[in-house]
Design a protein that fits this description.
Strand content: 15-25%
Helix content: 25-40%
Number of domains: 1
CATH superfamily: Vaccinia Virus protein VP39
Strand order of the largest sheet: 3-2-1-4-5-7-6
Distance between the termini: 106 Å
Oligomer: single chain
CATH architecture: 3-Layer(aba) Sandwich
Order of helices and strands: HHEHEEEHEHHEHE
Length: 234
């Protein structure tokens, strides 16, 4: 348990939380603008309900969360979505996997509700970063409500098994705030330098080839038996 229990919404309103939200909105803006179709579903509230879905150009947008809050479209467990199969063009998971009691089932639900070619956008924290180390030292108090961190490589393996292809990746939230401007000029390649990552995965579309009816060959008489003939003898 955290030493200093803090509600997630209260933490996101702090200077550190606002800085994180600004970095996440900036990194998610382009992938959300590239979402085409009618339906966008965000599973799990992370700050204001329209902080992310307002950036998308889809005709319909909704937020699903386990608790009722302003802007939440409907309440449901994240691993049991009351959404029709193959009906959503994009799903956004803002640190939802890290707060879910059933992360594997949550990904299966995303695969189920997405259409062929639909996009899954995931925001996650890097467990091997300075942020991840800070979370261990504070016994999970930073950020609050996050149960488990999953590495980018581990998430890629899960997505590959669940019929997804990762098409884009972005890293954000550098270890030191004053290094943001310098990091744009010279990107850091250290694995623990960036505290967060974004993955975009596309659901695979399997082409169905119709089977042709095989031509039935005429049956041949067994070897050694005389074939019948219709000729009459004189």
């Amino acid at each position: 348990m955290p030493i200093y229990p803090v509600e997630l919404d209260d933490w996101l309103a702090t200077p550190a939380g606002q800085r994180l939200r600004q970095a996440e909105q900036a990194v998610a803006a382009e992938p959300l603008r590239r979402v085409f179709g009618c339906q966008l579903l965000q599973v799990g509230a992370w700050g204001p309900a329209d902080a992310f879905i307002g950036l998308a150009g889809t005709a319909r947008r909704a937020v699903c969360d386990e608790h009722q809050a302003p802007g939440v479209g409907f309440v449901a467990e994240d691993w049991q979505l009351p959404v029709a199969s193959h009906s959503v063009d994009a799903v956004l998971l803002p640190h939802t996997l890290e707060r879910s009691s059933e992360p594997h089932q949550l990904l299966r639900e995303c695969e189920r509700v997405l259409t062929g070619g639909g996009r899954l956008i995931v925001l996650g924290f890097n467990p091997w970063s300075v942020l991840g180390l800070r979370r261990l030292l504070t016994r999970g108090a930073w950020p609050p409500a996050v149960e488990q961190l999953y590495s980018e490589r581990r998430l890629r393996d899960w997505l590959s098994l669940l019929n997804f292809d990762v098409t884009a990746r972005e890293r954000y939230y550098p270890a030191f705030a004053e290094a943001e401007t310098r990091s744009r000029r010279r990107p850091r390649r250290l694995p623990g330098y960036y505290g967060g990552y974004l993955l975009v995965a596309v659901k695979r579309v399997h082409a169905v080839t119709p089977l042709r009816r095989l031509w039935r060959r005429p049956e041949r008489a067994p070897i050694g038996l005389a074939e019948p003939t219709t000729r009459s003898r004189l």
